[in-house]
Amino acid sequence: MFDYAPAPESRDLVNFQASYGHFIGGKFTKPANSYSTINPATEEVLAEISRGTAKDVDSAVKAARSAYEKTWSKLDGATRGKYLYRIARIIQERSRELAVAETLNNGKPIKETRDADIPLVASWFFYYAGWADKLDYAGLGANPMAHGVVSQIVPWNFPLMMLAWKIAPALAAGNTVVLKPAETTPLTALLFAEICQQAELPDGVVNIVTGFGDTGAMMVGHPDVNKIAFTGSTDVGRIIAKQIAGTEKKATLELGGKAANIVFEDAALDQAVEGIVNGIFFNQGHVCCAGSRLLVQESIQHVVIKKLKARMENIRLGDPMDKNTDIGAINSKEQLTKIDRLVKQGVKEGGEAWAPACVMPKNGFWYAPTIITGVSPANTVAREEIFGPVLSVMTFRTPAEAVAKANNSQYGLSAGVWTEKGSRILKMADQLNAGVVWANTFNQFDPASPFGGFKESGYGREGGRHGLLGYLKGSN
Amino acid sequence: MRLEVKKTYKLFIGGKFPRSESGRVYKLNNHKGEFLANVAKASRKDVRESVVVARSAHSGWAGATAYNRGQILYRIAEMLEGRREQFVAEIRELTGQSDKQANQEVDKAIDSWVWHAGWTDKIDAVAGNVNPVAGPFFNISTNQPTGVVAAFAPQGSPLVGLVNTIAPAIVSGNSIIAISSEMLPICAVTLAEVLETSDLPGGVVNILTGNATELGSWLASHLDVNAIDLEGTSNAAELEMLAAENLKRVIRKGSYARTGAKGSLQHILDLMETKTVWHPKGH
Question: CB–CB of A448 and B137 under 8 A?
Fold first, then answer.
């Protein structure tokens, strides 16, 4: 392996304030009830963040309601669209700054924030901007209506991208929003608040309240909220579904996954190995649609594992700000503990864990890319979402067995299929119970492409015309 | 004088007509208050048996061609038309409706089957898409049935409400456990006989008569049920709470009209999943 010289991105592009309040009604509140947000790669404190209280949530919902009634619902679609286009453009202008901020607060490699997260954020706003004056074509008949005020709660794995997936369609459809970023990754959402100011978005159309799960629960429970959009764990999704039972509130839930990545003996193996690596090690495996269960056809298991291990020896783990880094920091100590516990459980149940030798930085939270072989479908690591750079390997003999094993999960978010045989791809795609099927590719996202799960991976779709429907209702 | 041969009103599970496993029945009177029948009162075990057969019937039905499903739904309309007199008589006896009213109810039930039959091979034309993604990929979104649906038919309608509860689920390939109106269950049992003679595979539609509140909690909490339609329930909030345990898709009470000769495409789509498939374009 070549030695790489360090190639760090400059962090001068970002200036965080020492402390942040909430963004309510177009203004930042005075910071209060603070906690520290850190860089998980160094444990350095980046800023002090406010914990949202019931009062904060209430004033955010009031600001959103007032903006909805007085301003946003009165604007024509073309004007709403132009605000969204403005936001998309400002995101493009400030993309390098946002990429650095995201990497600092999340721990993911700069090459991912720079090449994937932030470009997708901009494209999401650009895409939905164009829908704002075309809602009659959304599929709900003429003059569909917005729900009103939407509470949106997003996770820490793609902080700004998840914000974009939520806010862009909601605003295009004519709703106003109260959004809570995850407690560990609030900073890009707070920079986004500044972007709303720069775009001169009317006050109260977007409100950002920071805090923990209790703040999120208040946003779900607030009586003047019409719709909930949540991305996060299945356990929290269940709590939300229960909380809104018997109310008029609607919900879109993007929850956990345990995707099967299925490799047939007639696959292009080198490409498949790249796809396996991308599927599970992209974003440290902190991906709800990660290809965390490798199902490899028995006849090629040895060659695939050998190639995979050789490829993993060349994965570079370390400073997320270095442009050559493939795997950055685990987002939090809590998540690191969970990954470690689940891998130990996998070994205890008979799996064999392997990881390449990695030099771990001294500070921060790190986990080497790991594969566990000899896993059986009943094992914990074959069933539970690990949400880390850990791949559970199983084998199959026939396509029918691959389908049965792939579908044997409470989840149904995504799946991968690797084969050079077109008819096999199409039949597998029909039979896999997953909202997204990647054939001879993995982890592709696009604002024009609906994303979302079957079963306990949640309901509703984000992306495309389907993603717009979650924020609209028919006019009768 | 010849003594009339009366029908035993039983459940419809897996294409067969069993009594309730519990041995329970409930007494049903006609609109004049005279004894009409002892109707099977389904139990928890009947619910569980229905879910098992619905699950095993699902993949075959979902895998049938849309053309085939459309023909079977149309055949249901044909069979229903053929037994119109019987349905009209049952509705009149049970509800005291006029001949005209009862005929209108049957008309709408038949026409709704025809309306739904036509949708099987058109859903994706309206609700699917080839997505223009920003990269060299073929990307397509289609819709597929969500799986096993539990549904509570409206309590106030003897026939058309049940049809507009079952048809939107099975049109796309779901299988269903439908709980009929408790006090208007007679046509439900006769509808089961229609379904049984329409080439519909056994287990795709299962119809239980009994108490919705009693059966509701078993269905709402069943982990092998994917979606629940709460129309005919009286404790919808409680059932929605139970349904959250495995994140069932929920159709809330009053979401869709059930008494017309047409359904709603959105109702059909509520019981389907959008699936998006990506493949690289290259040489």
Answer: no
Shortest distance between the Cα of B12 and any Cα of chain A, in A, equals 27
Of A241, A435, A444, the CB nearest to B247: A241
Q: Which residue, among A230, A407, A442, A444, would best test binding to B if mutated, counting the most B CBs under 10 Å from its CB? A: A444
pLDDT (tens digit per residue) in A381-407: 999 999 999 999 999 999 999 999 999
Residue where the block lists tokens 């690289």: B280
Two structure tokens written together for A319: 């400073």
CA of A9 vs chain B CAs: smallest distance (Å): 27
Contact between residue A168 and residue A464 where contact means Cβ atoms under 8 Å apart: no
Contact A455/B247, CB-based, under 8 Å?
yes
Write out the two tokens for A299: 């006849």
φ and ψ at residue A47, rounded to 5 degrees: -170, 165
The 10s digit of each residue's pLDDT in B182-235 is 999 999 999 999 999 999 999 999 999 999 999 999 999 999 999 999 999 999
Cross-chain residue pair B127–A139, CB shorter than 8 Å: yes
Q: Indicate if A48 belongs to the active site.
A: no
d(CA B160, CA B154) in angstroms, rounded, equals 9
Q: What is the pTM of this model?
A: 0.96
Contact with chain B for residue A19, Cβ under 8 A: no
Following DSSP, what letter does each residue of A55-83 receive, concatenated?
HHHHHHHHHHHHHIIIIITTS-HHHHHHH
Q: Most A CBs within 10 Å: which of B139, B279, B281, as the mutation test of the A interface? A: B279
Annotated active-site residue A288? The verdict is: yes
Share of chain A above pLDDT 70, in %: 99
Helices B212-220 and B236-243, packing angle to 10 deg: 20
AA identity, residue A234: T
CB contact A233 to B (< 8 Å): no
The per-residue pLDDT for range A108-120, each reduced to its tens digit, is 999 999 999 999 9
Contact A429 B275 (CB under 8 A): yes
Sign of CA dihedral A331, A333, A336, A338: negative
- Give CA–CA dist A367/A370, Å, rounded: 8
Give the residue carrying structure tokens 């669209």: A81
pLDDT band at B46 (very low <50, low <70, confident <90, very high): very high
Kindly determine whether residue B131 and residue A459, on different chains, have CB atoms separated by under 8 Å. no
Residue type (1 letter), B172: S
pLDDT band at residue A1 under the 50/70/90 scheme: low
Instruction: Give the tens place of pLDDT for each residue, A8-51.
Output: 999 999 999 999 999 999 999 999 999 999 999 999 999 999 99
- Residue pLDDT, tens place only, A112-155: 999 999 999 999 999 999 999 999 999 999 999 999 999 999 99
Report how far residue A229's alpha carbon sits from residue A236's, in angstroms, rounded to the nearest whole number: 12
Q: Catalytic residue, from A183, A288, A289, A462: name it.
A: A288
Q: Where are the beta strands (DSSP E) in A26-165?
A: 27-28, 34-38, 45-50, 145-146, 149-153
For chain B, say whether A438 makes contact (Cβ under 8 Å): yes
The set of residues, in sequence order, having a beta carbon less than 8 Å from that of A79 and lying 6+ positions away, is: none
Lowest-pLDDT range, A2-6, A322-326, B135-139? A2-6
pLDDT of A2 reads: 67
CA distance A262 to A398: 11
Q: Which of A451, A423, A476, A471 is nearest to A174 (CA)?
A: A471
φ/ψ (deg, to 5) at A272: -60, -40
CA atoms within 13 A on the CB side of B35: 6
How many C-alpha atoms does A54 have within 13 Å on its Cβ side? Answer: 3
Q: Cβ of B226 and A456 within 8 Å?
A: no
Contact A439 B127 (CB under 8 A): no
Q: Which is the catalytic residue, given A9, A254, A384, A462?
A: A254
- In degrees and rounded to multiples of 5, residue B10 shows phi and psi of -120, 180
